[in-house]
Amino acid sequence: MHPFEYAAPETLDQALGLLGEHGDEAKVLAGGQSLIPILHYRLARPRVVIDINGLLLGDIVVENGRLGVGALVRYHQLEESDVIARRCPVLGEAARLIGNVRVRTLGTVGGSLVHADPAAELPAVMTALDARLAVASPSGRRTVAAREFFTGPLTTMLTADEIVTGVEMDAVSSYGWAVEELSRRAGDFAVVAVVALVSLDRRGRVDDARVAFGGVADRPVWARAVEDALRGREPTADVLAHAAQTARDALEPPSDAFVSGAYRRHVAGVLCRRALARAVARALGRT
Ligand SMILES: Cc1cc2nc3c(=O)[nH]c(=O)nc-3n(C[C@H](O)[C@H](O)[C@H](O)COP(=O)(O)OP(=O)(O)OC[C@H]3O[C@@H](n4cnc5c(N)ncnc54)[C@H](O)[C@@H]3O)c2cc1C
Q1: Hey, which of 4, 24, 34 would you mutate to test ligand 1's pocket, going by the most ligand atoms within 8 Å of its Cβ?
Q2: Mutation test residue for ligand 1: of 6, 19, 69, 112, the one with most atoms within 8 Å of CB
Q3: From the alpha carbon of 38, which atom of ligand 1 is closest?
Q4: In terms of CATH architecture, what is 5-51?
Q5: Element spanning 270, H or E
């Protein structure tokens, strides 16, 4: 690694003070599962690394029907938390698909969102849920919609002096959910990932649907057309297949060294249909 100074602030204000002082010469360290390899390969050469693990950003809370997840909540906490299991189980299902045990032990919600890998699971979940990120800087606080936060591959609208402190979303207790993904080996990043949430009304028709894809573009893709194709309709196999087809037709995924864009689009359609079917089955169990 290129040499750097290491700082371990104990409060958010101290961390923000350091970021204000060093700006883009500083890097925040959370779980280190992406930053440490980046430093090893000298893809980033910060003068100062600000370790935020001592900050109190690890809470999972429910307030006024909204679920708040601190930036330092680890993936394994999403898998194990009773609150998450009751209020937003899609987060636990997504976390279980990330990397390996070491990555899930150390990796954080904030780190995943800021790293902004287009194929990562949590950015797609937050996009589907229309979550809001809480952001702090030396000059104040703001919230940013997840659907606007990701601006390109490994790129977000966060500025160099900002820290993500947490993320807030609707508690979706009455929704059925599913995360489907195809990866080349277990634990790899997804080639394609689909997140689906569905709630049903008393007549068994779709009351609300939330769908997003990972791995099919330079950032997570909110599949609004699929949601519109489902709302108010009885979720028969034909309706779900039609909605998935709508999603598939709207995507223009890139090709890479492993798979073609055409293959990605095909897989996206298949996984979307499966995710919707599983989400509907779970919604039936919940209503
Ligand atoms: C073997 C392996 C397999 C993996 N597989 C997957 C996978 O299948 N799916 C997946 O989604 N990810 C995967 N990852 C990546 C993993 O999810 C990382 O944990 C994640 O990308 C970064 O989270 P982190 O907490 O480790 O952040 P770090 O590595 O500490 O930081 C990542 C970036 O975010 C910034 N940052 C971190 N937290 C904050 C914050 N609160 N505010 C502002 N900036 C911040 C850092 O400065 C850095 O630029 C894998 C990693 C490895 C090593």
Answers
A1: 34
A2: 112
A3: 29
A4: 2-Layer Sandwich (3.30)
A5: helix 261-286
Specify the residue for token string 């350091």: 18
Q: How far apart are CA 111 and CA 130, in angstroms?
A: 18
Does residue 138 sit in helix, strand or coil? Answer: coil
pLDDT of residue 266: 97
Encode 135-190 in three state secondary structure.
EEECCEEEEEEHHHHEEECCEECCCCCCEEEEEEEECCCCCEEEEEEECCCCCCCC
Residue 149 CB less than 6 A away from ligand 1: no
176-286: CATH, from 3.30.700.20, 3.30.470.20, 3.30.390.50, 3.40.50.2300: 3.30.390.50
- In this predicted model, what pLDDT tens digit does every residue of 202-241 receive, in sequence order? 999 999 999 999 999 999 999 999 999 999 999 999 999 9
Record the pTM: 0.96
